[in-house]
Amino acid sequence: MSLAGLEMVFFLPLALAAYWLGPRRAGWQNAVLALASVIFYLSWNPRLLAVLVAAILASYGAGAWLGALPTEGLPEAEAGVVRRRRRRVLTLALVAQLGLLGVFKYAGFFADSLNALLGAVGIDGALPILRLALPLGISYTTLVQVGYLLEVYWERAPACRDPLAYGVFVGFFPQLLAGPIVRARAMLPQYLVPRRLAADDVAAGAAALLLGFTMKAFVADWLSPRVVDPVFAHPATFATRTLWVGLLGYATQLFSDFAGYSLMALGTGRLFGLALPENFRHPFLSKSLAELWRRWHISLNTWLFDYLFAPLTTGRSWFRGRTGAGFLVVFLVSGLWHGATWTFVLWGLAHGVALAGHHAYDGFYKGLCRKDRAWVARRKSRGYGLASWVVTQLFFVLTLVPFRAPSLAAAVDFGKGLVGLGGSGRLAERFGLQAAAITLFFVAYHLLEVGPGPRWLQRFRDLPAAVRGVAYGLVVAFLMVYTPLGASTFIYAQF
Amino acid sequence: MDRSATRQLLIDWLDDNYHFGEAETLIPSDDASFLDNGVLDSLGFVALIVYLEDRFRITIDRKSLNRENFDSLNKILAYVEAREGAAR
A173, A144, A182: which is closest to A60 by C-alpha? Predict the structure, then answer.
């Protein structure tokens, strides 16, 4: 079952009916969400549900253990003993969570890489390769649980004392497949109180679901088989212009697929009276890579920032104050998190190096600003803004080559083709109206953030409910004509 | 160090690293949010933490390391005063 699948048309109303028509108690509502999430998970892979449940029970237990070891108000000698005990509990819990992820996601990759290394010095097949089915959403649920454990360990969030609420906090079905990666302080309190049905939530939830589905089914699923898949399957055979069309098509597909999924998750959450965190904020407007990563997959990047970058660069280790080195570590981790392949490592490394380079350039430019304020004005000029936008977007799009390519060799072929060293093939199909409509939709979505865009959006939101209802109805009718009912799986579900 | 001197140090740090003489004009009041007024982004907050620890010889524990605790001049001043007081 998928958020954009046909089954959801039946599953979601049933879950909503049980949720809102039953007793208005947190326990009942959480029980309905837990049951719905278990059914959702079982529809993907029944055997691996036990892995998720075991991980949730382990992190819940570790959180409760940490919660039972407070340091506040203790005399210093006693506090020191408790702190050491807390550190041991946290270490054990993190080893369990990350170990599980490591075994399922990375064991094969590391064994493969080590065997290749040993093969190079004449030792063949030294390590057995473990190929395990990846439990659904394990990359996301692991980060949710690790974030929770760190918050409780740092005493920034209380330990959750309600196992059902905690289980739903980790495994709520709309976020299970591909996030957003939720945080304890923002989400857990919502599960501990009864939720109330509000017209605003229903309207906003339905609108987000509709927009998300449009992005997924109308844009991403149209581009994938016609433009992106053929070009990436045989990059060496295509002409430069076709490769660029394919690459820009992939950037649009990836964004529409993932932002569409995230909007559908947010919308579904709102229908249950829950506010999941925003995951995308018009990333193609960004004028620097740092800004882009604040707008793209926000929940992952803020997670990496808060739990890896900030502790690393403000701690007492060699990394203290070394922002560039912090970027390198964070993006290598981000690359590996996306997938256990060398293409993702290369992608992460490219972004880490670029961010570190930009940080060094920023330091240099600030030196110029200190000497002469004219440099401040230059940086605020339209020309500087436009150049920054072009460089940022071009770099981001180019790094999608290793991100999407099936192997390093295919990525190299694609790169060569982009600069005129490839084939001469073209796509068989000609695209007219839908390609223009997708471009218009994509540009319009981003324009909602600039100039009069936010004002227009607010004006639409202020229209009478009946008018908005008719508008949404027209979109549904349009989608029924132009898109197949039930979309494909989401790209980010594989991570 | 008195409050006004600490405040001036913070303004100087913001000017030297981010706003080059415009920090005061960006901050409408000492209670105004740094994030809402574009005074500091998330990277700036990390740099601010390192600066505060090094300049005022205080340790900011992980429990306090929330953006909300350092999101205005008054919040930072109150935190620094409390930590300096605790160290004495």
Answer: A144
